[in-house]
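Per-record layout

source: Shiella aurantiaca
name: DUF4159 domain-containing protein
length: 216
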Amino acid sequence: MYKILLMLAFWGISLPSIAQVEIAKLKYNGGGDWYANKTALPNLISFCNTHLNTRLAKEEAIVEVGSVELFQYPYVYMTGHGNVVFTRNEADNLRQYLLAGGFLHIDDNYGLDAFIRLEMKKVFPELDFVELPWDHPIYRQKYTFPQGLPKIHEHDGKPAQGLALLYEGRVVCFYSYESDLGNGWEDPRIHNDPEEKRLEALQMGANIIAYVFSDN
């Protein structure tokens, strides 16, 4: 019932008891810049509300990995360039959140990969990241990406990869690697990305948000 109510609120179906749905950025320890891409989520939210007719709260929340408040947010965004450390309690809390129906989107802002793979093993020691096929529903929501995750910023000449942790067949964590989606969501003045690249990034972000609230 909780997910049904969230879906109704997400799609803007007016019921007196349904408030706006909030999405959140994950605050973690270890020294990494969890606060990177400050304008990214507000721009993505605005894009979704305009082009998907959603009713997301205009500003993102900030939530700590080990907080009980984590369970309030159906979509949590994690980014940064540097070190990430989860305590045992934080890893357990994140696992319970994801098993309860939550969704974590990890967006490598360059330099996150070595740390996040180790820390997510604390959360799901039994799982490994796998690349989603290009025909996966996450690439075929409102916008179609026939070649999978789009490449927004170039770093090491590697292809963009949409990786996932699958628990009993469900995507509990989507990891956008070598793509820099969040940079593409930012205000144009920050990275001076071509408008077509920004649009690609926002459309892919909207697909991820829509996928979270779909009957996947």
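summary: Residues 1-11, 13-18 have pLDDT under 50 and may be disordered. The first helix runs from residue 2 to 10.
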